[in-house]
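Render this sequence as a predicted structure.
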Amino acid sequence: MAKIRKVAFQMDHVSGINIAGDSTFAMALEAQARGYELFHYTPDRLTMRDGRIFAAVEPLAVRDEKGSHFTLGERERVDLSTMDVVMLRQDPPFDMAYITSTHLLERLHPKTLVVNDPAWVRNSPEKIFVTEFADLMPPTLITRDLGEIARFREELGDIILKPLYGNGGAGVFHSARDDRNFSSLLEMFGQMYREPFIAQGYLPAVRKGDKRILLVNGEAVGAINRVPAEHDARSNMHVGGRAEATELTAREKEICERIGPALRARGFLFVGIDVIGDFMTEINVTSPTGIREVKKFGGADVAALLWDAMEVKRS
């Protein structure tokens, strides 16, 4: 029976994280408590040589102490196939650098368990994968055609416009039917992004919150509600959203049950979905967050449930 002994975290540098709300840090704390050896490296240190995958890693120790939350050992070049688990945890943008890292990590998986499965991460962009469940979503348009976007807004009135591969609420705009800045906004998007944009019908229920629901191996295990600031359309906490305790509604349970089989089929052990009112807006598979907030509000220890699932996967 294969056991987990060595875990490497591919992540943005540990020195820059906010431990109060960082899910990767929560995973590292739980892994350390289980006696695993932890290693840390940033995506730019990933290397393929003659078909083998290496990284310059540092032994990692973590502490739940603000201002003194980590210690790194001496850097060493290692063959990542010697790891039992690699956690793919750098933040988006989901650009060619991110996609390339999935190609490299795919050479390791599944002998070395990569979470989430890098091939399916690459093939399931968060704002596109979700459209496989169109009946669970608000009206959604993906295009660069400005006429299509104008018609969409004329039909629906208020819309949300955002970059297709963005994250964290960056570049998210609420545009009403009478918004005189709409043409300028489309011009700006056209200059900033080569990809199509995504537009969705505005959901007034967002004023009551945008719920982040966490799923482990396709099962809902916890949730938090993120309420936007008074003068902001976005509920992301790092742009002023407020987290609060919540429970799943019957509709949200239905959504989770519907998507669960697809998540398991793609090897997605850890996923965060966003739900506003009765509609799912995103399926986050790259580096979903919310673990620490769920536990803070008395919910499940999602990090422990995730490592339980990985131990089963390795057995």
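Summary. The longest helix spans residues 250-265. The mean pLDDT is 94.
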